[in-house]
């Protein structure tokens, strides 16, 4: 679903800074997006990617800082990630629960905070988990 959102934004002319822990997935996504603007090839479009662990505020801050440095500004953001382990509460481990909360809660907070520090007026942020 994240790739679909990225394709839609790119087709409308957005230049994207993608982030994930999976570099292989990011490279495939960038390749899919290369040159997609209104269905036509546009050479000036320059999407970038960064491997980011959203559980680490330094990693998130570095990604957003790099985005603004390389692309010039941050007009909007989509935080679309999450993890879920479908387990009965009684079977859930402390480690698994902590990991899920670190990604789904702390990660979103770290992203929002870093993005808001760089976003100008009239910017837009959408945050949604990718798991149900």
What does this structure look like?
This protein is α/β, with parallel strands linked by helices. It has a single domain (2-128), classed as NAD(P)-binding Rossmann-like Domain (Rossmann fold, 3-Layer(aba) Sandwich), CATH 3.40.50.720. The chain contains four helices and four strands. The protein has helices at 2-11, 23-33, 57-71, 94-118, and strands at residues 17-20, 48-51, 74-80, 119-128. It has a two-stranded parallel ribbon with strand order 1-2. α3 packs parallel to α4 (94-118). The longest helix is centred in the C-terminal third of the chain and has 25 residues, at 94-118. The chain is globular. The relative contact order is 0.17.
Please count the helical segments. Answer: 4
Could you estimate the helical fraction of the residues in percent?
40-55%
Shape: globular
CATH architecture: 3-Layer(aba) Sandwich
The CATH fourth-level homologous superfamily: NAD(P)-binding Rossmann-like Domain
- DSSP E strands, number: 4
Please report the distance between the alpha carbons of the first and last residues: 12 Å
In sequence order, what are the helices and strands, one letter per element? HEHEHEHE
Number of domains: 1
What kind of sheet is the major sheet? 2 strands, parallel
């Amino acid at each position: 679903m994240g790739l679909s959102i990225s394709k839609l934004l790119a087709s409308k002319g957005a230049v994207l800074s993608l982030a994930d822990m999976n570099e292989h997935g990011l490279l495939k996504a960038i390749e899919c997006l290369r040159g997609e603007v209104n269905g036509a090839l546009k050479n000036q479009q320059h999407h970038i990617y960064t491997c980011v662990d959203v559980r680490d505020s330094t990693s998130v801050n570095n990604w957003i800082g790099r985005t603004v440095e390389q692309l010039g500004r941050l007009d909007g953001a989509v935080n679309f990630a999450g993890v879920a382990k479908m387990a009965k509460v009684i079977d859930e481990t402390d480690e698994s629960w902590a990991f899920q909360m670190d990604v789904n809660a702390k990660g979103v907070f770290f992203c929002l905070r870093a993005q808001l520090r760089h976003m100008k007026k009239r910017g837009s942020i959408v945050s949604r988990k990718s798991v149900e």
